[in-house]
Every structure is written in C-alpha cells, then in structure tokens.
Amino acid sequence: MQFVIIGYGAVGETIVENFIDSKSKHQLLGVLVRPESALKVRERLLKPIRIFTSIEEVIKEKPELVVECAGQQAFHQYGLTLLHSGIDLTIIATGALADDKFRDALIQAGRKSGAKLYIPAGATAGLDGLGALKAGGLKKVTYTSTKPCIAWKGTPADFEFKLESVNQPTQIFHGNAREAALKYPQNANLAATIALAGIGFDKTCVTLMADPHARINIGRIEASGDFGQMKIEMRGEHLKDNPKTSAVTAFSLIHAINRRENSIVI
Length: 266
Prior knowledge:
Layout: E1 2-6, H1 10-20, E2 27-32, H2 38-44, E3 50-52, H3 55-61, E4 65-68, H4 72-84, E5 88-90, H5 100-113, E6 117-118, H6 127-137, E7 138-147, H7 156-160, E8 170-176, H8 177-183, H9 189-197, E9 205-210, E10 217-225, E11 228-236, E12 238-239, E13 242-246, H10 247-259
Parallel strand pairs: 1-2, 1-4, 2-3, 4-5, 5-6, 7-9
Antiparallel strand pairs: 7-10, 8-9, 10-11, 12-13
C-alpha cells in the first residue's frame, strides 16, 4: 500500500521514522505540508522523501491512503477533497467531527466515491468494549483526561487558570464531548473518538484536568449499559516535542496503517 501523511510535527516525524527504513510492505510516498513550511521540513528530514505542498499533488500520485496528523484545521482543509477523490483517509483530529455539518458532508462524500474515513483508537483503549456495550444498550459514558499543566499551555485553560500558579490537580473543563472537542482542539480529540464509539457527543461526559504533579498523560473511560460495565485507563508518555499528545497516538496510527493489509485483523 502507498500512503501519504499530512503534517510533519511530532506525530508525523514518528511515522516517517517508523516507515522510511523499515521492511514494511507499505510505501510512504511523502509528506504534505504548507508551502511556507516546505524548506524547514526539508531541513529536518533526514531521509530523501517527497514533500507535497498542495492536495492536488497528492491526489495526482493516487495513494491508497492519506494519514492526517496535523490537526483539525488540516482535516477541515483537505478531508472532503480527499474523500471526493476516492482516497481513504485516516485521522487523529477527530474533534472536527463534532461539527455535524462537516461530519455529514464527509459521510456523503464517502458514500459517493466509496472512500472510507478511518478513526484509530489513538491514546486510548476499550473502543471495542464501548461498541459491544452500545450494541446491547449503552447508558452512560464518562471520559477523564489528566495531563501535566504544560500540556494545557496555549489553550483556554492557560488564560482561565494561570497554569504556572496551579499547585494541585485542577479541573479545567467539565461538560460534554462536543464542547470539549471544539474548545480544546489540540487536547481533546479523544473525547470525540469516544463519543463516536459510544453514545454521541452530547451525552458523553468529559472532564479535563491539569495536574502539576503528573508526568504522563492519563485517560480514563467509565461506561455502563444494560449488559455490562467498563472501566479502562491508558497511561502514556507524551511525545518528546509535543506534551499535548501522547506517544501512543502516533503508534496507534502506525498500527492502523499496518493492520489494513493483515490477513488476520484484530
């Protein structure tokens, strides 16, 4: 399978490092970045892979898959065009799907072209369990995300709570998944993923915590339904260059790419 990634931040760099020298049967064709970033990305790349600066260049190469790892803005910018072109898309910026009109447009584009939108688990686990509980009658889902204070820099919490002064675990947000995903687009994409797997954006309860003592990112899902209950917690190291994102997110994308060609799919 040939694929292209969008973005060359901490997640994109991890994917490139994993595939560029590996013996994988998948071929990374290149990286799509903004034109003004192309030179800087070329200087950072240690291997000679192609840099795309427009979505038209990507589509012309006819990859089987494009992997978004650049955030909600990039997903909004390129998602519909790729699906209309019949190219499958895997995303991590699932918070953009909290916009019902955008999500519906993506669904219609995929139906017309046959392209699929894939959502990996990201830095969580238990989505299969949520799906099973949903099939049997899911009633309640809560998601709690705890990250070090530095992970919330540059977000609304930075202005509302003066993060540098926080000296104990502090709740910076409590509401539904739609509000969390839209208010914290860099930190709460998992809230959207969990909502999509479970009972929806407006019924999924989300709490975001800033903890000055935390050294890792912690995500906890609690769910209950007619036929069972679930509690699961993922504790993951954040990416070296991006404390907002767990390293597990990057490896979840790598896993999603690899499993497309597996004979046995789990």
